[in-house]
Amino acid sequence: MTKKKQGIIKASAQGDKELKKIIGSRIQRVRRHLGRTADWVARGIGVSRGAITQVENGRNNISATLLWKIATVLECDIKEFFPNVPDAKTLDQADIEKIGKENERAADYARKAFKPLKND
């Protein structure tokens, strides 16, 4: 089962299916918002209407090229089709405190290892 946190999808086989559905529904939402038909999009990018509806229903994988063509014909940013991408790491208060303690230890070590020189 996939875990969601703030709209983030975990990478897994189930997540792949869910991601296809999300991307497809977002394509459909943009298309409908613009008052365009699946047939209009299909003709604009040179595929069948069925291919577009398959993508919009999350039944087909979509190549980066086709995704770019759809975004171009709909005159939207391609990132509108994707859910949130997780950050590599988000710092929480515990992380910040740990970093602070490590900095204190490093400063203590530096003071002991490198005694200040006396000026004559």
TrEMBL record:
Keywords for this protein: DNA-binding, Transcription, Transcription regulation
CDD domains named in the record: HTH_XRE
A GO CC annotation given for this chain: cytosol
InterPro entries registered for this protein in UniProt: Cro/C1-type_HTH, Lambda_DNA-bd_dom_sf, TransReg_Diox_bact_type
Highest taxon in the source lineage: Bacteria
Keyword Transcription included in the entry's annotation: yes
Gene3D superfamilies per UniProt: lambda repressor-like DNA-binding domains
One GO MF term: DNA-binding transcription factor activity
Domain HTH cro/C1-type: 27-81
SMART domains: HTH_XRE
Record bears the keyword DNA-binding: yes
Protein name listed in UniProt: XRE family transcriptional regulator
Native source organism of the sequence: candidate division WS5 bacterium
